[in-house]
Fold this protein.
Amino acid sequence: MDFTTQLLIAAISAGTPLLLATLGGILNERAGIIQLGAEGLMLMGAVTTCIVYIRTGNLAVALLATVAVTAVLGLLHSFLCVTLRANQTMSGLAMTLFGSGLSAYLGKPISGIPLPGPSPKLHLGWLEPVPVIGNIFANMDYLTWFSLVLVLVLHLLIHRTSWGLHLRAVGDSPATADVMGIRVQLIRYSYVIAGAMLIGLAGADMVLAYAPTWNEGLTAGRGWIAVGLVIFARWNPLRALFCAYFFGALDSLGFRIQLLGSVVPSYFLKMIPYLVTILVLMYLGYRNRNKPSGTPEALGVPYIREQRF
Amino acid sequence: MKKRGQSFSLGLLLMLVLAVVLAGCGNNNAASTNATEAPATNAGTTGEAAATTEPAAEKPKVAFVYIGPPGDGGYTYQHDQGRLFMEKELGIKADFVENVPESADAERIITELAQSHDIVFTTSFGYMDFTLNVAGKFPNVKFLHASGYKTADNMGTYFGKNYQASYLSGIAAGKMTKNNQLGYVGAFPISEVIYNLNAFTLGAQSVNPDVKVDVVWTNTWYDPTTERQAAISLLDKGADVLMAYQDSPATLQAAAERGAFAGGNDSDMGKYAPDNYLTNPVWNWGPYYVKAVKSVMDGTWTNEQYSGDMADGMVELAPFGSKVPEDVKTLVEEAKAKIISGELDVFTGPITDNKDAVKVQEGQKLTLEEVLGMNWLVKGVVGTIPN
């Protein structure tokens, strides 16, 4: 395998949890609700997966439980933001603090206990002889495949279906959507819950694919990177795929440069992902300075029927 | 106009949240230390009550400051096991504060603990200066700091020669590799990691002179994502046995996926991938904690810089993985016996660094001080120490 293929494989491996969490964030924010709770939701997803997988030994049950728990947290976030019209930034930060604390508490009894098994892989023997493609796709795990399919599904959903049109309408102009007979509150609730579920799965992927055990603070800030990637991807699932893998590749590139015998200090190499992010944002900002940013117009604004803005 | 007003109020709210959050953090810490102190003062008063009838029964109040949670499965876990061992041996109930950052917060927490305890163990390198400051203010309290080098009249240090066990895991790795390429995932380019990496390399070279060790620095103690990426890049370069001076088993899992062998650090990680596990250094703090508290109780305590090793049991080697062959185990056991008897010293010359400068002359040995300040890599290590 050559350097590029190895880097691609590493990028996909490092990028998958980021991709799932970013897609979740996009669903949330397309509906007009800010999602700053990703770190907490990922931790809750990770701890739920560990607890249920260790207790039952059944991965499917563990993933279902993960989705259920994060759905409840998503319901809480949408109840606060949609029904109570609480400040969305505050609710999101609260979710992060709450998730970090609760996951640490719930995880204490199973901390350090190994999971029954790693993430199962989908072997595609017929694909193996194909160069590059075979190396990358013949042995990916199910969650990675799920995230790839999801990118396509969400892209089509948001941009090619009437459901997507409703979603975008709710995120851009809830008053207009309301007039058109779209149920704004219902749509916001559903997408915030769906988004939280995906972020929970991102946490599940981290324990299944990286370190097969629960430890407090396991995500180490990856949730916050996903919050940034939502903006970086300009609320678009296809761009999210690119951004997540790009960030994953940068994560891995530092070590590869160290191993090539570089004289650049490792401290500096560790800054690469963040430095490149700033540069790319500056470049995109400059190139798109006369275009809309892609931000849902009503992001962060609670909708109150008949209130004028 | 309306819009600007909104974003202004949003900003204001955000600041408010931050303020509340920060204030909350402060209060939480204070509350948690208070909570841990409360039982101590209770125990103290009952102890005093008992003392009036039976003077010999007075026991010191002991506190621990942890860098991580006891459930980290690694460094703090081993210290907590040591605390539990000491409690059982001496019948003392010790207090602990977990997740204490190596910042001014540490000094505040150590101060609070010093007010209500007789012995305070601070278990991470970064607490050194804070412990020293507090020790100056509480001359009647004994402070014991792990892994540091500063002492005071009432402050001693303790750590162990875990490089002895790293040397032994190096022997196993040197025998197990098929292509003579080993990989080392190092947390930070500091002397603690460097002397373990060097000992690992020397151990591997003692049974396999052609072996090369690639090293990558992650600049984190605990981050499974980063550790995994570091491990994969070493595997991609061709390494078939990895060792990680890190707190998570991420390297072991990455190696297991490729059918390679690996080891970790601090605790026995074999349970995560028994078939791909080699071995690694393990801490056993319990006997030392018993000894230290006892010496305070009988008045023989000194502010020594205690260095444990494989002979006194502070440093141990984890049980081998299931696929490590018998001849490799025998080889390691033989070297272990020599280390324990003092016949074998890991850093005995001739040793050259990876820039071909002679660092230890033939027949010479490094002193403990020289080992603890090591800032060069032995020949055979492929990598650099960033300045």
Summary: The two ends of chain A are 58 Å apart (CA to CA). Chain A is about 70% helix and 0% strand. Residues 18-117+141-236 of chain A form one domain.
